[in-house]
Amino acid sequence: MTVVCERVVSSLSPDDMEALCEAVTAGILDGGGFGWLQPPGNQALERYFEGLLLVQERSLYVLREDGIICGAGQLVRPPSSYEAHAATVNLTGFFVAPYARGRGLGRALIQAMIQGAKAMGSKVINCDVRETHAAAIGLFRSLGFEHWGTHPYYARIGGQTVRGLFFSKLLAGEHEAARWQSSIAAPDAGGAPVSSETTKSQQGLMLYPAIDLKDGACVRLRRGEMEDATHYSDDPAAQAKLFEEAGCRHLHVVDLNGAFAGKSTNVPAIESIVKATGLPVQLGGGIRDMAAIERWLEAGVSRIILGSVAVKDPELVRQAARAFPGQIVAGIDARQGRVATEGWAEVSELEANDLALRMEDAGVAAIIFTEITRDGMLAGLDLEQTADMARRLSIPVIASGGVGTLDHLRDLRTIARDVPGISGAIVGRALYDGRISLKDALDVLGSC
User: Fold this and answer.
1) Strand order in 160-170's β-sheet?
2) What is the largest CA-CA distance in the chain?
3) Can you state the angle between helices 14-29 and 42-52, rounded to 10 degrees?
4) Which candidate among 13, 189, 203, 260 keeps its CA 20 to 30 Å from the CA of 153?
5) Which residues are catalytic?
6) Residues 325, 363 contacting (CB under 8 angstroms)
């Protein structure tokens, strides 16, 4: 028996791809994986792995026994903007096909991936495992991974809630590890106080003031209902300019009519916003083909938000993310965890976290997560769902839907200290109603 573990650096041959898909299918049937509870078919799996090879932050490793692929794993590096996490890497998508287990192959694969993580300069490797995967848990423990936390609502499988276990392994050498551990700040260490400005720079979140457009005017909806809209301004460009003058550095614009129509509708209003300020604008609502994406990016929009199309045409998302790296964002809107589409008028059976993982694999730059039942209601963000999603991803998650007071933003910032994947918040009605001043919001979040 010859065992080889290697990083994939180019497209797999047809035979290798077939063997990999066969192994993944067997693994999914044995207990799920890659976000699927049932095998999606070889065509979907092929697209998944072909797209994965195009994502710079991901490294795919395969396990071969006598030349045949029978397992795989991925190393996921944080985005380059995550400077504080530059020395960490996540091990995910790890499996050995059921027919190849019991021969020490999993250990060989993990050891090869650990060496790969060290070669890329990582000092810490993290992973998470379902509590029901006893063999995998035992394997990670035997290789020196430390269990540091438990997620009580990690997954829903067969109608049952399954817990997840979080593990980490320090990869640094003995002397370097000692320096790392000695530098960890203790709460009562009595060292030099950290200034508020330092805290802001380390913990700051982005504020995205929202401009929602209906019939050319700025409005805000309640729970996504077009019939329940509050009119705020007939001059979207002037509103954008006010946000810029108040110190904001980003704008979040949604074409509400476009979201329902399936094509951009408030074109003059959007163009006026882009021309009125020098702020980066992220735009969503009715953008569902490459022509529309290209048109708006050429018009000066900095990032495109793809929502309904993420569910109905994920290949378009992958194609767009490949063509415009860093400029494609997935907007995931959910009603109690289920993804909604068509301007929130339709609710699918797809779970928000499953879609988020697929969008990450497609190569999007970030996720905007909105719990629709809270949007425009001023009752606070759904912090539990937002944090849960951010913990599962290596790309940023922007929180949206429900901010009504400064305390809601303070609560988000507190959560974000423990869940660094949360990168910002979208605020709309609370700003327009004067419940929150822009200055106070920027001060609380610690960033623009």
Assistant:
1) 3-7, 58-65, 68-76, 88-96, 124-130, 160-170, 146-157
2) 73
3) 110
4) 203
5) 212, 333
6) yes
What residues contact 113, with CB distance under 8 A and at least 6 apart? 5, 61, 73, 75, 91, 94, 125
| pTM (2 d.p.) | 0.56
> What is the SS3 assignment for 37?
coil
Give me the helices (H) in 172-213, please.
Answer: 174-182, 196-203
∠ CA(136), CA(141), CA(146), 5° rounding? 120
Taking alpha carbons only, the member of 95, 96, 58, 93 closest to residue 78 is 58
End-to-end CA distance of the chain, in Å? Answer: 58
CA-CA-CA-CA torsion sign (317, 321, 323, 328): positive
CA distance 163 to 445: 32
User: Across residues 51-72, what is the average pLDDT?
Assistant: 90
Sequence-separated contacts (24+) of 315-318 with Cβ below 8 Å? 315/47, 316/288, 316/289, 316/290, 317/359, 317/362, 317/364, 318/47, 318/51, 318/362, 318/363
**Nearest partner of 251 among 221, 224, 274, judged by Cα:** 274
DSSP E strands, 29-136: 58-65, 68-76, 88-96, 124-130
- Ramachandran region, residue 311 (left: φ > 0; alpha: ψ -120 to 50; beta: rest): alpha
What is d(CA 172, CA 183) in angstroms, rounded to the nearest whole number?
14
Report d(CA 343, CA 255) in Å as an integer: 10
Q: Lowest-pLDDT range, 31-40, 51-60, 97-106, 152-161?
A: 31-40
Q: In residues, how long is the chain?
A: 448
pLDDT band at 108 (very low <50, low <70, confident <90, very high): very high
